[in-house]
Amino acid sequence: MNLEELDLSGNRLKNSDLTYIKGLSVKSLNIGGNLVQGSIDIGELDGLINLEELVLDGSHLSNILHSIRWCDLRKLEVLDLSENALEGELPSCLANLSSLYHLDISGNQFIGNGASTTLANLTLLKFVFLSRNLFKVPSFFMSFANHSHLEVLFSDQNELVKEPAIRTWIPKFQIKVFRLSNCTPKEVHNEVPKFLYYQYDLRVIDLSYNNFGGNVPLYNILEGNIPPCLGSLKSGYIGFYLDLSHNQLHGGIPENGNNFDGRLPSIDITIVRLSPLMVMDLSNNNLSGKLPRWISNLSELTALDLFNNQLEGSIPRDLCHIDGLKVLELSQNKFSGPIPSCSGAQSIKHLHLNRNRLSGTLGNAFFNCSSLVTLDVSENQLTGEIPNWVGTLSALRVLLLKANFFTGEIPIELCKLLSLSIIVLSQNNLSGPIPFCLSNLTLEPNDEKSSTKAYLKGFIGSLGIVDYSEQTKFEWSTFKRLDEVYVTLFIENPIDEKVDYTTKRSSYIYKENILKDMSGIDLSCNRLTGEIPFEIRKLREIRSLNLSHNNLTGHIPSTFSRLNKIESLDLSHNNLSGIIPIELMELYTLEVFNVSYNNLSGSIPYQKAQFVTFDESSYMANPFLCGHPLPKDCNEPNSPSTTTPNASYNEEESGLMDTYVFQVTFFVSYVIVLLVIATILYINPYWQRAWFYFIEHCTNTCRYFIEDNLL
Question: Which family does the record assign (predicted)?
Answer without folding.
Answer: Belongs to the RLP family.
